[in-house]
Structures are given as C-alpha cells and as structure tokens.
From TrEMBL, chains A, B:
PROSITE patterns: HTH_MERR_2. The keyword DNA-binding applies. It comes from Arthrobacter mobilis. One of its GO terms (molecular function) is DNA binding. Keywords: Coiled coil, DNA-binding, Repressor, Transcription, Transcription regulation. Gene3D superfamilies: 1.10.1660.10, Antibiotic binding domain of TipA-like multidrug resistance regulators. This is MerR family transcriptional regulator. Pfam families: MerR_1, TipAS. Residues 85-119 form a coiled coil. Residues 11-80 form the HTH merR-type domain.
DNA sequence: ATGGAAGTTGACGCAGCGTCAAGGTCAAGC
DNA sequence: GCTTGACCTTGACGCTGCGTCAACTTCCAT
C-alpha cells in the first residue's frame, strides 16, 4: 500500500521546498520549532512533507525575514495578531535609528583613521586642525574618556575661533604652571599645587561639554598622565607627572569625594 | 603586614576603574578572559587590582569598541600585530557595506508598507504604479521568489514604458490562453498545454532579470497558483489552476529536470 | 561579632541558524 | 538479499559580547 508517485504530486520533501524557496532544510526545521511553519504531513518515519500552502507560507516568512523582521514579529503577523503594515512601520523606525547610529559610527571611524594616520598614535593627538598642535598637546589628554571623545568634539566645534584660542592659551598656561610648581619642589598638598588642581578641574569641566567630571574620572586622568610617556614628557618626566597626579588626587579627595 | 592606604594610591579595585571608564566589572572580567586586559595585580584573595597603565589600555579598548571593532580585532591592534589605521580601514569597508544593505532594506520596507497599505495583502499586488493594475494581476505572481522580489523590481524599473506595456499585454494573453485551454478540456500533457507552459517559462525567465528559473522554482510556482485563492481565481478556480499546475509540472519534468 | 557592600568563579541566555554527530530510511544496482 | 549512497531524523554545540542570576568568600565599619 505504498503511495505511488502520481502525476500531479502535491507535496515535497524538506530538501525540495528548501531549494525551491532558496533556503536550507535546517532553516525549515528551525521555523517549525519556532511555530512558524508546520509540515502539511509527517510520515510514519518522521519525514516532513510540505504542500503548496506551506510553500506559500514559507515565501511570506522569507519575504518578511528579508526585510529584517525577527521571527517573533513574523509569527505575530502570520497568525494575524498584527497587521503587516503596522509591524513594518514599527520595524522601519528601528531601521532608521540603526542607520543613524551607523552613519555616526562611520564618521567617527573616518576621523579616527585620519587622526591616527597623521599622528601615528591611536589616540588622536591632532584633533585641532587649524592649529600648530605640536605646541598644544595637552588638550588632547582631556578627551580620553570615550564619551568625552565624541561629545568633546562637538563641543569643540561649537566654539568660535576666538574661544578656541583662549582655551588653548589657557591650557598652555596651566601646563607651564604645573611644570614650574613641580620643579620648585612644592608639595602636592600645598596651596599652590591645590590651586593648580582647582584650575585643572574647572578647565576640564568646561571642556567636557556638560559632562560631569567625577572623582574617578579626575583621578584616573591623573594616573594616565603618569602612565603614558607621551603625557608625562609634557610634565617634566615621570616625577613631574607624579606630582601632578598626587595633587589632583588630593584635590579630588577634598572636593569630589 | 597590610598595605596601608597611602597617599598616592596607584591602583584601584575592579569597580573603581569600571566606573571611571564608564563600563562594568563584568566587562572587565570578560576582557581579561579574552586576553585584552590583565589586572596589574591579583590579590591573594583573588581580587583584581588595576593601575594607570591598565586604565590607559582600557580606554583604548573602549574607544575601538565604540567604533564597532570586534574584540578579536582589538586584540590584534593592542598587541601590535595590526596597525590601528589598517584595522580601521578594513572595518570601515564593512561598515559601508552594512550601510548599503540597510539603505536597501529601508527602501524595501517602505515599498512593502506602501503596497500592503494600499493593497491590503502582504504580497504586493500593486507594484506597477502607473497602470490599472486591477486588470493585471498576473505579473505579480511571478515575483514571489524573494530574490526575485528585489531583483525583479529593479528589472521592471529598467524597462521603458513601451516595454512594460508589451510585457503586460503578453502576460494577459498568456493568462487568457490558459483559461481557454482549461475550459476546452485539453489534457495537461497535450501539445497545446505544453506550448502554453513553454511560453510561461520563457516569459518568466525574462521577468526574473537574469535569475535562473529552475525546476523547483517553476513547479513551485505552479503549486502556488493552486494554493492561493487570489491566483487560482484568475485561472478559473481551483480546477483551472490545477490544470495550469499540471501542465507546468509536465513541462518541467521534460525540460528542466 | 555581625551586617552589608564588594569580590570571586561558574553558568545560562540571547538570535538565527550553521554545522557536526550518531543513527534510521529509501531507492537502486549487483 | 545486500551494499552503497543520498536523504532523513533528533540532539547539541558554536558564534558575539556581555547581562544576569547563583552560591560563596572577603573586607570594612559598626
């Protein structure tokens, strides 16, 4: 009593529809497990067989998948709990946001490539195009926080030329004063050093574009001055940088803790 | 012999750097497991401690992660096996391709929304804007394959107005002939029916924009004519659609197997 | 001493299948 | 009737980058 292969066959094996629809048998089993597509018949041996209606359903699933919908959403649409248009509208919003993020990321990558190719270092030393940045390394340090990197850039570009010059001048002054203080043998907890730390703090707060400069961030920065030779060099070597770090730490303990 | 909390502390607990860098302790452990960031010291109790150099390293990792690089790539960059610029260039290419796919997907979703909102059905019945499509339903059927959906659309838009009219006329003729043949009681394997199947095949091949029309695709389409009432209606009900399907199947067996 | 905050390792979860692994079925050729 | 090879089954791990318990241990302050 076997079913002879008749002329107008109306069902196919799993591989056959898979190929017909341009997908794989694994995917079909997955869809079944997800409750999206049941075989029209299952043989006594467990083999799955699919008919035209299944193929139709499968095509719908694949169409929606191609548009990027998740299997769960697709399930809702298929069983009519959600209109296709509504689901797609929701999905479209997600896609648009995704695109925005991608665009921003692409821009960021491009800028970082630019910076590293010119500067040779991973962390951009040369974000300030129009200036002779070899003279102004310090400001770079301030943007090492990762959010600060992105936000700080917007902040910087929002400034006028005059404001930028002021800010750079300010930073140079600050660095010089640090070096002087370190060289003069002042203690990190002296009034002099603490005043410098205070200036450093407010200068940073201004540069962070509304981003709060917290205890961890401030002291962390101090540590990095010591850890990174490119920076410590600007502060008179490890010793000088250590002095800056200590002073900043004390300031943080007193005012930010 | 405990280490007293001295003035210039140079290391922090896992939570402290995590907060300072704007991430979580779990992430730090993950990076360690991934070989990206080792604590500067591990206490006898298993506690992890990190110093300034670690913080520096962490910032680099987070910067790259923000740009979308995978941890593996980041690892290569950090240990100098890949230049940052090179890695970012590669990554940029990926991002650009990703953006392309996203754009296409967005366009497709928009069109599908349009179509379903006007047509009410998920499968777009109205892809042919300028025409009185209520008269031309058949062509829609041909684009059910999912790649065909996207590619077929580009194909269609690449045609001139004249070519479109020809194609539509052709499709209408074909449908009428099918209906006539079915009504006249012709057998599916008759010369007449097989000639219609041949026309159907070539008409499809033309419509698929270079996409091959294989055995599975062709027979599957026939099955769908029967399974979907919207289509079978156009072929004189289930009986007529069954006739078309059978004829297509025989044609496929003879010429596409 | 004790309670609460913070640390540890271990392991599951997620999205959508790809990809073995180990074994049953089926049609065909000898 | 037996072997071969193609195709089928279920089961389970893998991938990405952590989030999120769970079950304990340690540290610090009262």
């Amino acid at each position: 009593m076997k079913t002879p292969p008749e002329h107008g066959r109306r069902e196919w094996s799993i591989q056959e529809i898979a190929r017909a629809a341009g997908t794989t048998s694994r995917t079909l089993r997955h869809y079944q497990a997800a409750g999206l597509l049941q075989p029209s018949r299952v043989g006594h041996n467990g083999y799955r067989y699919y008919d035209g209606a299944c193929l139709l359903q499968l095509q719908r699933i694949l169409l929606l998948r191609d548009l990027g919908l998740g299997l769960e959403e697709i399930g809702k649409v298929l069983q009519g709990r959600t209109g296709p248009a509504a689901a797609l509208h929701t999905h479209l919003a997600v896609l648009l946001e995704e695109r925005d993020r991608l665009e921003r990321r692409i821009a960021a990558v491009r800028k970082t490539i630019d910076a590293t190719e010119r500067g040779g270092q991973l962390m951009p030393e040369e974000m300030f195009d129009g200036f002779d940045h070899t003279q102004y390394k310090e400001e770079v340090e301030q943007r090492w926080g990762r959010e600060a990197y992105a936000k700080g850039d917007r902040w910087w570009r929002s400034l006028s030329t005059r404001e930028r010059q002021d800010w750079l001048e300010h930073s140079r002054q600050l660095q010089n004063d640090w070096v002087d203080a370190a060289a003069s043998g002042t203690a990190p907890d002296s009034n002099e050093a603490q005043e410098l730390a205070r200036r450093q703090f407010h200068w940073l707060a201004g540069a962070n574009g509304g981003q709060e400069v917290g205890y961890g961030y401030f002291t962390g920065l101090g540590e990095m001055y010591v850890a990174d030779p490119r920076f410590s060099a600007n502060y008179g070597g490890e010793a000088g940088a250590g002095f800056v770090r200590d002073a900043m730490k004390i300031y943080a303990d007193r005012h930010l803790a």
